[in-house]
Design goal:
Blueprint: H1 15-26, H2 30-45, E1 57-58, E2 63-64, H3 66-77, H4 82-90, E3 107-108, E4 111-112, E5 115-116, E6 126-127, H5 140-151, H6 161-175, H7 187-204
Antiparallel strand pairs: 1-2, 3-4, 5-6
Helix pairs in contact: 1-6, 2-3, 2-6, 2-7, 3-4, 3-5, 5-6, 6-7
Length: 207
């Protein structure tokens, strides 16, 4: 399911066209070039050349989307281990979280070990029914916003190129031509190839 469906409702005429024109300009500038170069390096550094959608990163499996790959790569460059970076990018919160955050450490091979309080505190606590740690789903813009908070909080207000390039990378990750061309077992690998090719092509447009 697309993560862009609710994010692109226009508040004024041609807002979407103006947004994508800004994105295209950003990929042609020096700041955009730096982000694209880092994205390509992040994709190449992935232990498994597959990209996923619906979340930034999954520390349980190592899966990540294009922007998640960029976040993990940058955090590793700052000294984190891959697992630490995956946890940071994911927020270490399972989608089963209810009444508090259920972390990866609170899951074992049988699922979530957290005792969940009954409704309104009237029923006794019971085991969470989650069978495997799954990252909380985020929309495309939420993913970019989280990435900005982790990567460049002091620059976001001044530099729009990273935001625009990451938004375009997320679009390619979620909406590239592969979406309806490949069955699920093949899709993550083809998504990686598509985003990698797009980044190289965008780099070729730069001065």
């Amino acid at each position: 399911m697309s993560r862009f469906s609710d994010d692109f409702d226009e508040d004024w005429q041609n807002q979407g066209a103006m947004h994508w024109a800004n994105v295209q300009r950003s990929t042609r500038g020096k700041a955009g070039k730096a982000v694209l170069q880092e994205l390509i390096a992040a994709l190449e550094a992935m232990p498994v050349h597959e990209l996923h959608e619906g979340f930034l990163a999954n520390p349980g499996t190592g899966a990540r989307c294009a922007v998640g790959a960029l976040v993990v790569h940058r955090l590793q460059a700052q000294g984190m281990t891959e697992q630490e970076a995956l946890l940071k990018a994911s927020g270490d919160e399972c989608e089963c979280s209810w009444g508090g955050t259920h972390t990866l450490a609170q899951h074992d091979e049988n699922g979530c070990t957290v005792q969940v309080q009954g409704w309104f505190g009237q029923d006794p606590p019971h085991p969470c029914e989650c069978k495997a740690w799954r990252p909380v789903a985020v929309t495309a813009y939420e993913a970019v916003e989280i990435a900005e908070q982790l990567l460049l909080p002091d620059l976001v207000a001044k530099v729009k190129a990273p935001h625009n390039v990451m938004t375009e990378a997320m679009w390619e990750n979620d909406e590239g031509f592969w979406a309806h061309q490949y069955a699920e077992p093949e899709r993550p690998r083809m998504r990686w190839k598509w985003v990698r090719a797009w980044a190289e092509e965008a780099m070729g447009q730069l001065p």
